[in-house]
């Protein structure tokens, strides 16, 4: 059977990963000075690494292929087989990294139920296991800022500091998955280094709200970044003239950070329009660029396909059967998100 696609140009709100490099970014990529990064000779990669290390207040940083690779290298560097990683139950490595934590490093997650993904220091303290040959060794506390499955939630910086204190006191390393860290910074008015200061390792992704085609950075002390380099090689992630990609990252860091506020405003506008529809509920205030819309009694999977037919691409949220997720980004305007809300309304017969 031939199925017909949407009749109108779709508004793509599946993720902030769908952005395409702009003409200016492509030009910067084409002009990039490059070298063999496995020899440490790519000047553009080196510049990006220094820039992000400085941004995160860390000694060094390593350019890696993806947010998943940054997460897995961080966990690999900080653990030994049999160790346990304390994290929220919705953490990215728990759900969306193909079981890499156990497959690659022989470690296990100890999942806690955070408040929309955000952990509380007392809750973490209670979960750290006492030393005993019976128990796995609690080794790493992993937090995500913003929290994807929490709905783009932002950690208050004091909470991150308190979590870092608990981790340090109990002998754990803190790993900050900062795939959308700059969204948190722009929303909270907090510099990235303030969020990263208590973390042993922290990451930042270039291919989400920043709009680059690929790449993440993992930052931390020089000796751990050296070890991260070894694991990157082991995973087959050591690229050669990667400056072509790094140039896109530098271009994005120069131009696409402050504008994340527009994505957040567009997300709030979308949430306002959706929340006004009969049968739709936006259960939480929108903090950044992710909107969860609940349709009580209806199937998110069915709705997402109905919305697709109407010209709005979005995804079922995944942890609740009636929640659809919409994500704003660089390639959608205020007019686009309002158009999307209108299409959703028509698809619902509202
Ligand atoms: C919080 C978080 N961490 C890590 C990742 C992984 O990034 P990538 O898709 O580049 O592997 C994502 C992807 O959406 C994410 O949301």
Characterise this structure.
The protein is α/β, with parallel strands linked by helices and 350 residues long. The protein has helices at 23-31, 43-55, 67-78, 92-95, 100-105, 121-127, 157-169, 181-188, 192-196, 222-234, 243-255, 260-275, 300-309, 334-347, and strands at 11-12, 60-64, 83-88, 108-112, 137-144, 173-177, 201-205, 216-220, 290-294, 312-313, 315-316, 323-327. Strands 2-8-7-6-5-3-4 form a 7-stranded mixed sheet, with helices on both faces. The chain has a 3-stranded antiparallel sheet with strand order 9-12-11, covered by helices on one side. It has a two-stranded parallel ribbon with strand order 1-10. β5 (137-144), α7 (157-169) and β6 form a beta-alpha-beta unit. Pyridoxal-5'-phosphate is lined by residues 66-68, 71, 92, 144, 148, 177, 179, 205, 207.
């Amino acid at each position: 059977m031939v199925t017909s696609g949407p009749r109108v140009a779709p508004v793509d709100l599946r993720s902030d990963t769908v952005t395409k490099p702009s003409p200016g970014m492509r030009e910067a990529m084409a002009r990039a000075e490059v070298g063999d990064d496995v020899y440490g000779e790519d000047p553009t990669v080196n510049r990006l690494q220094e820039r992000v290390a400085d941004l995160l207040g860390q000694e060094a940083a390593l350019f890696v292929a993806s947010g998943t690779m940054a997460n897995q290298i961080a966990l690999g560097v900080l653990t030994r087989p049999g160790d346990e990683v304390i994290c929220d139950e919705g953490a990215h490595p728990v759900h969306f990294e193909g079981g890499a934590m156990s497959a690659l490093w022989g470690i296990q997650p100890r999942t806690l139920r955070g408040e929309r993904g955000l952990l509380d220091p007392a809750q973490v303290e209670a979960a750290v296991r006492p030393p005993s040959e019976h128990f796995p060794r609690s080794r790493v506390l992993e937090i995500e800022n913003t929290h994807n499955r929490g709905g783009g939630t932002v950690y208050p910086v004091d909470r991150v500091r308190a979590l870092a204190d608990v981790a340090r006191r109990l002998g754990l390393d803190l790993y900050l998955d900062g795939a959308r860290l700059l969204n948190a910074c722009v929303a909270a008015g907090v510099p990235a280094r303030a969020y990263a200061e208590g973390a042993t390792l922290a990451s930042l992704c270039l291919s989400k709200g920043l709009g680059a085609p690929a790449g993440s950075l993992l930052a931390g002390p020089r000796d751990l970044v050296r070890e991260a380099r070894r694991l990157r090689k082991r995973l087959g992630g050591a690229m050669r003239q990667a400056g072509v990609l790094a140039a896109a990252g530098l271009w994005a860091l120069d131009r696409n950070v402050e504008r994340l506020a527009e994505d957040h405003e567009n997300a709030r506008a979308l949430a306002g329009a959706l929340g006004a529809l009969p049968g739709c509920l936006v259960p939480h205030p929108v903090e950044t660029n992710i909107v969860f819309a609940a349709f009580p009694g209806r199937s998110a999977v069915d709705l997402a396909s109905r919305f697709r037919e109407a010209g709005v691409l979005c995804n079922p949220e995944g942890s609740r059967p009636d929640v659809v997720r919409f994500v704003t980004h660089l390639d959608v305007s205020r007019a686009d998100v309002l158009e999307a809300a209108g299409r959703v309304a028509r698809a619902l017969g509202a």
